[in-house]
Amino acid sequence: MEKKGGLLLLRPINILSINTTLFLLVFSITTKSFTQNVFEALGESALSLNHQVSKDYAINFTFRSRYFLHKDALQYKQQQIDFFHFSTFKLNAIHKLSFGFYYRNRDWFDSGSDELRFMQEFVYSKQKAGVRYGHRFRLEERIFNNFTDFRPRYRFIMNLPINGKIWDVGGVFFVGSTEALLSLSEKHAPFFDHRFTTQFGWQVNQDLKLQGGLEYRLEGYNTSTKNYLFLLTTAIYKL
pLDDT, tens digit, for every residue of 68-115? Predict the structure, then answer.
């Protein structure tokens, strides 16, 4: 067997090892949430529409629904609906700058304050050996009914092809990310959140991509810790 062929055979093993490690990490944290008896599970279903306006400018519109699946007991209860938009400017092959806004409606469901959010983000991404890595730095100004919250965020993400290349039609891929968040406001003391996300995706055709997975959120872990597990389902369509 040629050396090149041998290297290709090793790639699925490495990907499986990474996937297993990330799954075990999320599973162990989730188990801890159950034992602490503060576990809440929610679902998020989203439809994301992307359009490439020009070579260096793209827009995105996303509609999302969030609902409780477990809160003290198994149940279905709508928590909110979201709408957000991003305008993204390509600075070069690996850097992008985006500006966006977000609207969250909870008033319809008597589940809390509505929110208007403005967002600015810078993304650095690179691909090596078929794996795509990305660093995202985002600033958010979150306007609630009674106060305003400022939240810087940092996310590291990687996309791993399971068969073929990441964007091949019919290709299956894995997405894993970790994100740190800090919330600042005159209304409350600063608090830190952290999120771990694992998803699998399927490139159905040139225009449609489906993703599904789990996200674990550790919120306010420096003050009063809350634990959430999200079931994520997303359809991404290119216009």
Answer: 999 888 889 999 999 999 999 999 999 999 999 999 999 999 999 999
Q: Is residue 73 part of a domain?
A: yes
What's CA 69's distance to the chain center, in Å? 19
pTM of the full structure: 0.83
Domain span holding position 82 = 3-193+204-238
Residue with the two structure tokens 């209304």: 187
Domains identified in the chain, total number: 1
State which amino acid sits at residue 196.
F
Q: Residue written as tokens 């827009």?
A: 59
**Residue 154's CATH number:** 2.40.128
Report the alpha-carbon distance of residue 128 to residue 171 in Å, rounded. 18
Dihedral (C-alpha) 71, 76, 80, 83: value to the nearest 10 degrees? 130
Neighbours of 116 (CB within 10 A): 13
